[in-house]
């Protein structure tokens, strides 16, 4: 791929110029004697989310029709891919969210087990995803550099030495100083050729992470930041540039893991605005698999949970350092290979420390309760481009949060954000570990005062953000699918929610009255774009959301899936 300012072959050179440039190959034998390109292999993953053990059965544990995932198998596949390539020419990279929203085995130890496992598996560089900020910037720096947790200490009884790989964060800046939180890029030499890696997360991180997690940080535009550091790398003689970006897109449902069918999402615009000097973009965040060429750049994603590894092959000109060709292949991390014994030992060690907590039964379900949004999906996708409709498990969690605050804080309603519901519940006994997997963020419940007018504004904002909140059983309202979506600057101006249809406890909401409402601290801080909730007053912080969920499962067992009738459409009301 050409570079701005790159020297091109001259035409009609004088004898003096030819002599100055050195010998020019004029025969096949002389051409064959030229130095061969340097072959470099990148092995890439993203959105691992602490899945040390194979993800549970179902869609999370399969991909491309095969059961996949688990760090014991991932490490073996990585070793085999390195052996197939020239081991010294292989660099292993990741595009963020290696930690956060993790299963209990990793999360109980602040994701130290995952960092140890990926370090042991040979990871070299990783960008910082939004979930790396779940516990704040100071904790991320501890994860990188080592040291015991300031509150929980070294829970497994051994020192935590930090990551054996380098986190890169080019577009997260310390607000006070304007300096990057972590190293923005790294330069890796392979047989004398320099390969530059720029790492970053999505600019919208503050909207999807709690305000405590991003306190003191400012996030910059992805393409502008990449272009800025690409220029800096070129000044240092780096012509092969790879961006590790925690932002992505999605292809059409007909596309396979190595296709790029009808690609949409933020990654398309970002790649189109990137400088031509950027050769490869390893992306993530959307948990999708794709293998694309966008604006002359190789753009890849390896889905999630360690179920795929992207095998990227680069041929680099030995003299100019420029990429001559780039290709990729998403490889399934199958479970038909031998387990890596070191990874098995690590898992066993942490399981022993975790003890009987994980397996403690906290409740029982009569049927499987899923997080799938089933209501309105066939009618409101055009109105709501992202999360749309109710979810059995989401409604159950909202009910649990109301039950935890109705007496203590006089709450009359609760709302849950769809992104906070991370897994399904199977039928039968529910263990603490399963409940934790559903709600792994340890958000606090916050009960606050909202006027009826503010409540309508919050509900209208659902159609601005593209995320429908899960309401408690006390809430009911009607959506007009032909109504107007509010402008982003004034979410209260929308007419999606039929005025007069909102009820709490069966009573019509008075826009001038005040209601006590419970949400988690992520939403209370304006998370997921719900800025209307920041206007709530008389806030009282309560227990951890997981504790409320566990208590509800225990008290209400056996628990059944709630009916999906809290949000109705004008079409349903008319038919009735």
Quick structural gist:
By secondary structure, this protein is of the alpha/beta class. It has 16 helices and 27 strands.
Please name the defining characteristics of this protein:
alpha/beta; disordered N terminus; 576 residues; six-stranded mixed sheet; 16 helices; 25% helix
Count of DSSP helices?
Answer: 16
End-to-end gap: 62 Å
Q: What structural class should be given to the helix and strand makeup?
A: alpha/beta
Based on CA atoms alone, the radius of gyration comes out at 26 Å
How large a portion of the residues is in β-strands, by DSSP E?
A: 15-25%
How many strands, which pairing sense, and closed or not: the largest β-sheet? 6 strands, mixed
Oligomeric grouping of the chains: single chain
- Return the average pLDDT rounded to an integer: 90
What is the overall shape? Answer: globular
* Weakly predicted, low-confidence segments: 1-26, 377-386
Indicate the percent of residues in helices.
10-25%
Instruction: State the total count of DSSP E strands.
Output: 27
Give me the side-by-side strand order of the main sheet.
6-5-4-1-15-16
């Amino acid at each position: 791929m050409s570079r701005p300012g790159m020297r091109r072959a001259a035409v009609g050179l004088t004898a003096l110029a030819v002599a100055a440039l050195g010998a020019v190959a004029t025969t096949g034998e002389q051409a064959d004697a030229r130095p061969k390109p340097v072959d470099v292999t990148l092995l890439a993953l993203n959105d691992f989310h602490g899945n040390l053990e194979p993800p549970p059965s179902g869609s999370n544990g399969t991909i491309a029709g095969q059961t996949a995932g688990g760090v014991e198998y991932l490490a073996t596949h990585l070793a085999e891919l390195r052996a197939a390539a020239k081991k010294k020419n292989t660099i292993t990279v990741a595009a963020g969210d290696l930690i956060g929203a993790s299963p209990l085995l990793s999360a109980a130890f602040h994701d130290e087990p995952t960092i140890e496992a990926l370090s042991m598996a040979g990871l070299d560089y990783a960008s910082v995803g939004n979930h790396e900020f779940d516990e704040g910037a100071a904790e991320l720096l501890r994860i990188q550099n080592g040291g015991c947790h300031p509150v929980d200490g070294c829970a497994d009884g051994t020192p935590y030495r930090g990551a054996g790989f380098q986190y890169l964060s080019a577009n997260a800046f310390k607000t006070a100083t304007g300096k990057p939180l972590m190293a923005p890029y790294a330069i890796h030499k392979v047989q004398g050729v320099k390969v530059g890696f720029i790492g970053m997360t999505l600019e919208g991180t503050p909207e999807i992470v709690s305000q405590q997690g991003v306190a003191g940080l400012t996030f910059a535009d992805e393409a502008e930041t990449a272009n800025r550091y690409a220029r800096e790398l070129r000044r240092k003689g780096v012509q092969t540039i790879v961006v590790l970006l925690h932002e992505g897109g999605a292809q059409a449902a007909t596309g396979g893991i190595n296709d790029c069918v009808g690609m949409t999402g933020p990654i398309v615009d970002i790649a189109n605005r990137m400088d031509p000097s950027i050769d490869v973009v390893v992306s993530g965040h959307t948990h999708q698999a794709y293998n694309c060429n966008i604006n002359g750049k190789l753009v890849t994603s390896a889905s999630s949970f360690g179920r795929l590894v992207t095998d990227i092959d680069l041929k680099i000109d030995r003299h100019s350092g420029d990429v001559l060709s780039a290709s990729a292949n998403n490889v399934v991390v199958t479970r038909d290979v031998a387990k890596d014994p070191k990874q098995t030992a690590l898992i066993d060690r942490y399981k022993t420390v975790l003890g009987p907590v994980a397996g403690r039964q906290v409740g029982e379900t009569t049927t499987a309760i899923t997080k799938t949004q089933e209501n309105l999906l066939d009618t409101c996708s055009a109105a709501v481009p992202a999360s749309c409709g109710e979810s059995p498990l989401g409604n159950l969690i909202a009910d649990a949060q109301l039950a935890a605050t109705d007496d203590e804080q006089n709450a009359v309603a609760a709302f849950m954000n769809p992104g906070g519901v991370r897994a399904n519940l199977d039928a039968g006994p529910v263990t603490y570990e399963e409940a934790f997997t559903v709600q792994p963020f340890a958000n606090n419940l916050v009960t606050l005062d909202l006027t009826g007018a503010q409540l309508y504004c919050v509900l209208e904002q659902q159609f601005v953000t593209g995320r429908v909140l899960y309401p408690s059983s006390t809430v009911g309202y009607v959506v007009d699918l032909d109504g107007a979506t509010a402008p982003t600057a004034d979410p209260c101006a929308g007419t999606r929610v039929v005025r007069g249809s909102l009820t709490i406890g069966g009573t019509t909401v008075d826009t001038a009255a005040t209601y006590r409402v419970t949400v988690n601290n992520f939403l209370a801080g304006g998370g997921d774009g719900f800025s209307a909730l920041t206007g709530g007053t008389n806030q009282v912080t309560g227990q951890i959301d997981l504790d409320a969920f566990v208590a509800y499962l225990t008290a209400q067992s056996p628990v059944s899936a709630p009916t999906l009738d809290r949000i109705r459409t004008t079409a349903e009301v008319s038919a009735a």
